[in-house]
Structure prediction request, 245 residues.
Amino acid sequence: MAVQIFNAGGLGGGEAIRMITVASSSALPGSAKDNLLALVTTVTPGKIRLSHTSPDAQAAGDVWIMTSVSGSRALQVGRKNLLTTYLVRAYQYVASVWVLKDLYVRTGGAWLNTYTYLYSRGTEFVTAHGFNGASLAESATYISKQATYMIGIPTATANNTKGIYWDAVDLSDFTTFRVVISTPNAQATVGFGNSVGNTLATISSGLDEVTFDVNISTLNNSYKLWIGRTTASADAFRVYEAFLI
Prediction:
């Protein structure tokens, strides 16, 4: 299915942005022109709007594509690229709530997923590691670092606790650790230090996406910050954004 998002507001003959829908990422067409969007959904789209904040007067099936200067993928709008906007992620209004949906953009002959980078003071979190068990020690096996998000414990089994931690993070000027995270089937926990026993807060299970704030004003700067499963779980969770404020 293909739909068009038309330019509005005096772009003077600008070209429409085209978007298709696919049932799964495996159904993305092998060949397509650059700047084409693909939304993974089985629900027929209604209105499709690009906005930094959630639109008002939404109706069933409407699609909201979040835009931001920190978005991971550029989209050219209008004839001769009159406008460049950056895509963060996409939602569809289903059962009276905005539901997170995978959104791909065709760039350089490839389909690229759109999520946001992980930032600390404007710098990508290059110090992220995976951990396995009660101690926090680097293990690349238990974290998948994508260009625009992280998957925690992708190889978890029902008898293990695994997650993600950040080291060398200066917390001196900040009071809050904010994370945008999914928790498909089991709760995730935010903590500090070298043991999963140092718990700050617990994030409930069954959330497609949640924004979660943790007060870190009392932590020692030498502590590691971590997110993981402290209960047995075989499923993974995704961290879309993590930053200090």
Notes: The chain has two domains: 2-113, 119-244. Residues 133 and 161 are 5 Å apart (CA to CA). The first strand starts at residue 2 and ends at 5.
